[in-house]
Design brief:
poly(ADP-ribose) glycohydrolase activity, alpha/beta, 12 strands, 23 helices, two-stranded antiparallel ribbon, 8-stranded mixed beta sheet
């Protein structure tokens, strides 16, 4: 590895070392421990949760990891594997899962070497994707499995993660919480994780997952590949038409039947409480698709102008319930097709809403923050050069595109969608490798594009619930962002929320009257101004359409 910049950025956060020959390696005592475990419980004596926790402590000592594990984590490992699992399932885990996981960990240095040899030249190598640094990391599912095995064994160094605003990555808190404050939801979160390891040890998946940090540039002029952070005037003057709006009173975002960018109601720290006690929308998604957890290793917290998009994460578990009622219900076979990079066509975008905004959410500053956050997540950066070029071809300069936007109406949504760069092809029979296809895609300005699919937005009550946002407000904000991002549709899952019973009627009324983005934004601003001044107690829908059956909106606390 001649150019080690990517590796150097992540190396302090990995448990492996660089030897004298500049090869990645484990310390010798760790190799001995893993080799013993790889030969099975009769050889290693690792045949219970209690012994596993001792083996974890020994390996951590061999790595000179001085930060203590969470209190009660050893008891958590023992509780789950020795008491909550049946004797038969526990025996199977230590005989059929721990040995292959140990083998996978032994191969981590070579998996990383192979990864950098293939990805480094294209800029998609594993590295810290830091704040205000747009970029992408492309990992094989096998490498992700090895990294998550490090999490299970609590082998990642954590002493400097707080300084970099990186989320939790080891599983000690997950198991400690199980013992310290037992709950069925926590047990079932662990069951999802354990099932993932059982699956990959039975048959290792061969695809890839990409992790992308997206941003709206705070600098002007922005780079050639990034849109700038819009001001209120941008939204006021936008004449782009609103995209079609579909309302689902039941169903789940992850089960959306057609191609869509699925919204993760995220914490600013990716994964939120997934590895702690959290068990709402984001945490559940990370449990049923544990490959998402890999992003927590190298993606620091999001700023107001940032979002994270993950493509290709496979789903392994089925479930029922939510929060305290969450239950793992068994295996899930993910039948989604794959793209030319070997990524499953599951696209997830993490956007973090304001927490407990109360009456502040009706102020322009915060309306703009939320709308731009959603816009950052929804904008397809791979099409941005085409998006910009089309506006310029219609007489709009680069500066006007970001600051004025008054000629938006010269371009229809269909023009932009139909004038994408030609496909970089799902057919790779011209003799080029997968990464050669990526290179050609980049040269055409269509990084990782799949233009045969028009990808809409599948979302729901983002920033509501525990975050305390106004669901009517958040619905409109997401519609504005999806429309401005030229998404062909938004599918909204209300989860039966009473406050959104009239959503379908309101959205159809707005579409019938052919409002554009600026029209709806200006109406939202007028409503919010009245709400802030105490001139209305109505929700936005009833305020907009007084003929609707309505009651006064619940008043947010000051």
């Amino acid at each position: 590895m001649e150019d080690r910049a990517e590796l150097d950025s992540i190396l302090p956060y990995l448990p492996i070392l660089i030897g004298s020959s500049r090869c990645l390696l484990w310390p010798s005592k760790v190799v001995e421990a893993l080799e013993a475990m790889s030969k099975g419980p009769d050889h290693s004596q690792v045949n219970s949760g209690q012994v596993l926790s001792i083996a974890i402590s020994d390996m951590r000592a061999s790595l000179s990891l001085r930060d203590p594990l969470a209190p009660f984590s050893p008891q958590g490992y023992s509780l789950f594997f020795d008491e909550l699992l049946t004797a038969a399932d526990s025996t199977k885990w230590f005989a059929e899962v721990i040995p292959p996981l140990a083998n996978l960990l032994l191969r981590l240095p070579s998996l990383l070497d192979f990864h950098y040899q293939n990805m480094q030249a294209y800029g998609y190598g594993l590295r810290i994707l830091g704040p205000q640094q747009p970029g992408m990391v492309l990992l094989s599912q096998e490498l992700i499995g090895a990294l998550l095995a490090c999490s299970l064994f609590c082998l990642f160094p954590v002493s400097n993660r707080g300084v970099k605003h990186l989320p939790t990555i080891n599983f000690d808190q997950l198991f400690a919480s199980l013992y310290e404050s037992y709950s069925e939801k926590q047990e079932n979160k662990v069951r999802c994780i354990v099932h993932y390891f059982q699956r990959i040890c039975s048959q290792m998946p061969t695809g890839f997952v990409s992790f992308q940090r997206k941003l709206l540039s705070l600098e002007y002029p922005p780079s050639q590949s990034s849109a700038s952070y819009p001001n209120a005037d941008f939204w006021t003057k936008s004449t782009l038409p609103l995209c079609p709006f579909q309302v689902y009173s039941s169903g789940l975002i992850e089960d959306h039947p057609t191609g869509a960018l699925e919204v993760d109601f995220a914490n600013k720290y990716l994964g939120g409480g997934a590895l702690h006690r959290g068990c709402v929308q984001e945490e559940i998604r990370f449990m049923i698709s544990p490959e998402l957890i890999a992003g927590m290793l190298f993606l620091p917290s999001m700023a107001d102008n940032e979002a994270i998009e993950i493509v290709g994460a496979e789903r392994f578990s089925d479930y029922t319930g939510y929060a305290s009622s969450f239950r793992f219900t068994g295996d899930y076979v993910d039948k989604r097709s794959v793209d030319f990079l070997g990524r499953r066509k599951t696209r997830i975008v993490a956007i973090d809403a304001l927490c407990s905004p109360r009456m502040n959410q009706y102020k322009l500053k915060y309306l703009l923050r939320e709308t731009n956050k959603a816009f950052c997540g929804f904008l397809d950066q791979s099409k941005y050069s085409q998006y910009k070029r089309l506006f310029q071809d219609n007489g709009l300069s680069a500066g006007q595109l970001h600051q004025d936007n008054k000629h938006d109406g010269d371009i229809s949504r269909n023009e932009v969608l139909l004038n994408e760069a030609p496909s970089t092809s799902n057919e790779t029979n011209e003799g080029g490798s997968r990464m050669e296809v990526v290179r050609k895609s980049d040269e055409k300005g269509g990084q990782f594009m799949d233009p045969k699919n028009c990808i809409g937005i599948a979302t729901g009550n983002w920033g509501c619930g525990a975050f305390g946002g106004d669901p009517e407000l958040k619905t409109i904000i997401q519609w504005l962002a999806a429309s401005q991002a030229l998404r062909p549709f938004i599918s909204y899952y209300t989860f039966g929320l009473d406050a959104l019973q009239s959503l379908a009627q309101v959205s159809q009324w707005i579409l019938l009257h052919k409002w554009n983005v600026g029209d709806l934004w200006n109406m939202l601003i007028e409503y919010s101004s009245q709400k802030s001044r105490g001139e209305t107690n109505l929700g936005f829908f009833a305020w907009l359409l007084p003929s609707l059956p309505h009651c006064e909106a619940a008043e947010p606390a000051n």
